[in-house]
Amino acid sequence: MRHSRVINHLGRTSSHRKSMLANMATSLILHKRITTTTAKAKALRTYVEPLLTKSKEDSTHSRRVVFSYLKDKDAVTELFREISPKIAERPGGYTRILKTGNRIGDNADMCILELVDYNEGMLGGGDAAKTKTTRRRRTSRKKEEGSVEAKAPKAVVAEKTEKAKTEGSEADTAAEEK
């Protein structure tokens, strides 16, 4: 019988389970989202949410308690500096589980476990920034006008400039005669 057996043992010894959950919690705090099996995500959620609640109060005692669970100094500083101000007003439910289907090798249920306040797509901030653009034909004006300069090599352009100079000097002499 399974009376009063609340914790999912995940087929591991207690020391292996504790170190695995600590590593996964560290990865979640540092990367804000991880991909794992659904059973591990549900176990990790019960492991990491009390730590997130503890991080709301920035004291030496709470830092030491969180460090005893995570065993990673970088994750503790990230948690207390950047994550705890974002979750300060939230009363709980700091993580979200998004199911992604089954793994190909062993057909295990896979999911994405993420911190709620760090998903920009679900917060709606990313859609407002995008502006709709219209599709336009990408042709240059020179090609539309049919000018020779857009199609001609440099030698032809140089000849045209010399020709324009001589025509300009001829126009000056004609103006002087009148």
Task: Describe the protein in words.
With 178 residues, the protein is mostly helical. The protein has two domains: 14-123, Alpha-Beta Complex (50s Ribosomal Protein L17, Chain: A); 141-177. It has eight helices and three strands. The chain has helices at 14-31, 38-54, 60-70, 73-86, 120-123, 125-129, 141-145, 154-177, and strands at residues 33-37, 95-102, 109-115. Strands 1-3-2 form a three-stranded antiparallel β-sheet. A hairpin with a 6-residue loop joins strand 2 (95-102) and strand 3 (109-115). Helix 1 (14-31) crosses helix 2 and helix 3 (60-70) crosses helix 4 (73-86). It is elongated and about 115 Å long. The relative contact order is 0.10.
Structural class: mainly alpha
Strand share of the residues? 5-15%
Q: What is the H-and-E element order?
A: HEHHHEEHHHH
What count of helical segments does DSSP give? 8
- CATH domain class of the largest domain: Alpha Beta
Q: Biggest sheet, open or closed, and with what strands and sense?
A: 3 strands, antiparallel
Number of strand segments: 3
The CATH superfamily of the largest domain appears as Ribosomal protein L17
The value of Rg in angstroms is 34 Å
Distance between the termini: 119 Å
CATH topology of the largest domain: 50s Ribosomal Protein L17, Chain: A
Total domains: 2
Proper CATH architecture of the largest domain: Alpha-Beta Complex
